[in-house]
Design brief:
By secondary structure, the protein is α/β, with parallel strands linked by helices. It has a domain of 175 residues. 21% of the residues lie in helices and 14% in strands. The chain contains 5 helices and 12 strands. Strands 1-10-9-7-8-6 form a 6-stranded mixed β-sheet. The radius of gyration is 31 Å and the shape is elongated.
C-alpha cells in the first residue's frame, strides 16, 4: 500500500543547508602558503651556497699543487718565495733555508725575515693543529711547524682591523696544519708564513689568503718534512715560550746556515720506510694536500701511509725537552 503524500513528505531526509557565511579555509591555505614559501627560501639558500662553493673551488683550482705545477703560490701577487729553488728527489729545496737544523731552547737565530719563514729552529715545534695562540710565540718554535707543512698566520694586534681577527680564527681553529698568533711590531696587520714563503696583507678578506693556504699547506713539493706531525703534546699552548723582541746579538746568534750545527739525521727517513701522512677531516677544498701526495681523502681515517724516498720526506716523534 502506498504511503500518503503527507507521510512521504515526513519520511524525506532534510537536505543540509550550507551557510553563506561559511567561506574557504583561509587559515589553512595561508599556513600551506607560508610553508611553501619557507621551503622555497631554504632551497634557494642551499642552491646559492652550492653555487658559491663551486665557484670558489673553480677559482682556487689554479693554486692546487701538482707535479706539473709544484709551487702554484708563485702566481700570487706580492708573495715572497725563496730564491733559486733546486729540484731534488721531487722536492724543491731553497738554499737560503736549511732543513733539520735544531737549536736549543735558549738559542736565538739571526733570521733573515720577520716573522721568519725557515732556517734553524728549535727541536720542539709549536703545536700547529688548529691552535690559536693568545700571546706572541718564540720564533724558533714557530719555524719548525713550517718545516712540517703548516701555515702560520701572524697578526699585529695593534693594527688589525675590527672583525678581521675573528675571520682569521675561523680560518685556523680546528684545522690541522694551521696556526695563528699575534706578532709584536709586525709591519703589516697580517702576515702568512709557509716554508720559504711569505705574504703580507692588510685585510682578512683578501682572497690571496685562501690562495696561499691552498698552494702551500702540506704541499709535498715544498714541505721539507712532508708527512711529519703537527701534534705536540709537550708544547704549552696556554703559556708558550715568549717571543723575544730584543735586538739580536749576531755574534752569539745562530746564523741562517746553521754555522757549525749539522742537520738532525734522525728526521730523515730510511729508504723504503713508511710514514704516516696526516689526513684532516675538516679540510675544505681551499686547503688540501695535492692529489698526488698519497694522502687519501677521508673523513673516517686519521692517517694514510706513503713510501718515504718518493713523495713523503720524514716522520718525527715529539722530542722530549
Amino acid at each position: 500500500m502506498m504511503a500518503s503524500g503527507k507521510n512521504a513528505k515526513k519520511n524525506r531526509k532534510a537536505v543540509p543547508v550550507v551557510s553563506r557565511k561559511q567561506g574557504l579555509p583561509w587559515l589553512t591555505i595561508a599556513a600551506v602558503a607560508v610553508i611553501l614559501i619557507l621551503a622555497g627560501g631554504i632551497f634557494a639558500v642551499v642552491l646559492n651556497k652550492a653555487d658559491e662553493n663551486n665557484a670558489k673551488a673553480e677559482s682556487l683550482a689554479a693554486f692546487r699543487p701538482s707535479e706539473s705545477n709544484m709551487d702554484p703560490s708563485t702566481q700570487i701577487e706580492g708573495i715572497y718565495a725563496g730564491a733559486n729553488p733546486e729540484l731534488k728527489n721531487g722536492t724543491l729545496e731553497y738554499p737560503d733555508y736549511k732543513v733539520a737544523i735544531h737549536v736549543s731552547s735558549t738559542d736565538r737565530v739571526a733570521y733573515n725575515k720577520f716573522p721568519p719563514i725557515g732556517g734553524p729552529h728549535d727541536a720542539v715545534w709549536a703545536a700547529c693543529n688548529g691552535v690559536v695562540y693568545d700571546t706572541p710565540v718564540r720564533n724558533e718554535n714557530m719555524v719548525h711547524p713550517l718545516e712540517h707543512g703548516a701555515i702560520w698566520i701572524a697578526y699585529n694586534p695593534a693594527t688589525i682591523a675590527a672583525g678581521d681577527l675573528d675571520k682569521l680564527k675561523a680560518l685556523v681553529e680546528n684545522k690541522s696544519f694551521m696556526v695563528l698568533s699575534p706578532y709584536t711590531d709586525l709591519t703589516t696587520p697580517i702576515s702568512l708564513q709557509a716554508w720559504a714563503h711569505q705574504l703580507q696583507l692588510t685585510s682578512a678578506s683578501d682572497p690571496r689568503i685562501e690562495q696561499f693556504v691552498t698552494a702551500l699547506r702540506t704541499n709535498q713539493f715544498v714541505t721539507p718534512e712532508f708527512g711529519a706531525s703537527c701534534d705536540q703534546p709537550s708544547f704549552d699552548t696556554v703559556n708558550p715560550p715568549a717571543l723575544d723582541t730584543s735586538p739580536i746579538d749576531t755574534a752569539s746568534a745562530i746564523p741562517m746556515d746553521g754555522g757549525t750545527l749539522a742537520p738532525d739525521t734522525s728526521e730523515m727517513p730510511a729508504e723504503g720506510s713508511t710514514v704516516e701522512l696526516p689526513v684532516d677531516p675538516s679540510a675544505s677544498d681551499s686547503a688540501t694536500t695535492p692529489e698526488t701526495s698519497g694522502a687519501a681523502d677521508s673523513t673516517t681515517e686519521d692517517t694514510a701511509t706513503s713510501t718515504a724516498g718518493s713523495t713523503a720526506k720524514s716522520t718525527e716523534s715529539a722530542p722530549t725537552s
